Known about the structure:
Blueprint: H1 3-22, H2 29-49, H3 54-74, H4 80-95, H5 97-120, H6 124-129, H7 131-142, H8 155-175, H9 182-204, H10 208-241, H11 248-279, H12 289-326
Helix pairs in contact: 1-3, 2-3, 4-11, 4-12, 5-9, 5-10, 8-9, 8-10, 8-11, 9-10, 10-11, 10-12
Amino acid sequence: MREVYFIKQNKEKWLGIEQVIQGKIKKNPDDLSSLYINLINDLSFAQTYYPKSNTTVYLNHLSSQIFQKIYKTKRVEENRLIYFFRTEVPLLVYQYRRYLMYAFLFFILFTSIGVLSAIYDKDFANIILGESYVNETIENIKNNNAVGIYQSGSTWGSTIGIIFNNIQVGAKLYMYGIAGGVGTLFALLSNSVMLGSFQYFFYEYGALKESARGIWLHGVFEIFAMVVEAMCGLILGASILFPGTFSRFNSFKRGFKDSFKIFLSTIPFTICAGIIEGYVTRHALKMPLALNIVIIFSSLAIIGFYYFVYPSIVNKKINNQINDTVL
């Protein structure tokens, strides 16, 4: 059978399955299983006769989505929150993994701009960070206390304020994506340039090592989460600009639903960053260096694994279950 005829013959059925996945059409578990088996037959046929076709890629993706829907229906005994973080979010991160790559590339580019701006304009740090902050930090560096700025205020009061501020920043990075992703990139530019000039400022005053011992205790979770939140904004923007086979409104709804779930997954890391900044960072230079290193790299390993490695593991597991069903 020619591929064009195969598509024409099954197009309406596949579009109907898309509507089931989107929740526009409700099906009971038995009907879902029947749809899944039918779709798997189409996928097997496509893998046999059109192995390198976009049709095969599309059907594989559709099969994964309908399988997830069945899997969620059957796993009602599992805690919904556990399923959300353990399976649902990782699968979404894997599906939109290229946007995570884009977000990190923009982050690196914008941070580099901040560093270069600080190198060639000696007043740049004053403009970006504020003159009072710069002057206070210079005094702290002279007193061998580069992270002294984090020692002001009460621990619990600082923690609450920091958490709410970081959530607000993350929400802006995400919601500004509604402007086609441009707003997200502007917000990421602002924060990244500030980070780049901030780090170069400490380097210029010979306190980069001391500052890193404190700043990156909480900064790993905070900055990594910020990039993931930017990823969510880019997904939201792309859903508007590139609707694909969906109507623009349906594409936006789908993009918002998926990106919001990923955004919610950053909240625990943002809260952890606030707690560390409020309770631990103020003691950074009094702690053994080994402890600083353990906290920093443990944080990096945890959040890096969750967003870079674990999604591939979950996706592979789901695909293996699909293949076992086909066989």
